[in-house]
Amino acid sequence: MSTRTDIRRAILAAPVGWLLAGGVAPARSDTADGTPLAAAMRRAQALRDQALQAGDQGYGAVVLRGNAIVGEAPSRVVTATDPTAHAEMEAIRDAARRLRTRDLSGCVLVSTSRPCRMCETAAYWAGISSMVTGAALTDLGPPR
Prior knowledge:
The chain has 144 residues and is of the alpha+beta class. It has five helices and six strands, in the order H-H-E-H-E-E-H-E-H-E-E. It has a six-stranded mixed beta sheet with strand order 1-3-2-4-5-6. A hairpin with a 2-residue loop joins strand 2 (60-65) and strand 3 (68-74). The radius of gyration is 15 Å and the shape is globular. The chain starts with a helix and ends with a strand.
């Protein structure tokens, strides 16, 4: 017989289970090195590809808290005609919306390229703990 915890784990493991759990997606660890950070970068790269297919700039970003993706976005500068809709800004907005807080302490911003000054400043004010960029997973440290 299954317990509530077992049922919850099964729901969270399902592809759409994260929607039922408040919009927090577990980062899949099916990449070469099997780490949630690598899985998050893979998702950011998929978002970059999505941005390019939509006719936007080729950037993608993910906000990671522990092993869960709590925010994600492609660049929407061109498609939304919004000069502030960088992938990192949009991912931070998405994470704040999903978590229902502007305090993203303990989160990591994972992006396909180094965040610009505007995005790094937004990460700073959101309390992002660390930034990681590029396929090599370069740790840029905390935003300044």
